[in-house]
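Lecture notes, continued. The same structure-token format from the folding unit now serves as the input rather than the output. Read the line below as a description of shape only.
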């Protein structure tokens, strides 16, 4: 008897991707590279914020940091919806960002 709950499978960082044509693979590689570039931009902003904080600036993350994280989220959602990347590939980029401490606000 079903109680209305949906059963999800195991979620992994890289659950592979469907077969792609060479052109689709090029687009996927470009999308992932752009997402990783955005992660690098956020890392730079976070480092700037940490330096400002060390010099006595207010301890709140600047709006540009929050905007950059939102931009990364939007870009990854768009790439997913356009079918350029798989959920596993998006999770992989977000895992890289999380390992670098970039997705938890600007409290460097």
């Amino acid at each position: 008897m079903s109680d209305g709950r949906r059963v999800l499978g195991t979620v992994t960082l890289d659950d592979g991707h469907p077969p792609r044509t060479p052109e689709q693979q090029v687009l996927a590689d470009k999308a992932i590279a752009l997402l990783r570039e955005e992660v690098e931009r956020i890392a730079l902003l976070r480092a700037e914020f940490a330096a400002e904080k060390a010099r006595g600036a207010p301890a709140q993350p600047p709006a540009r940091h929050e905007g950059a994280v939102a931009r990364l989220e939007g870009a990854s959602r768009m790439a997913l919806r356009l079918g350029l990347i798989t959920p596993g590939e998006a999770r992989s980029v977000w895992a890289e960002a999380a390992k670098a401490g970039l997705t938890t606000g600007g409290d460097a």
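Point for the exam: The radius of gyration is 17 Å.
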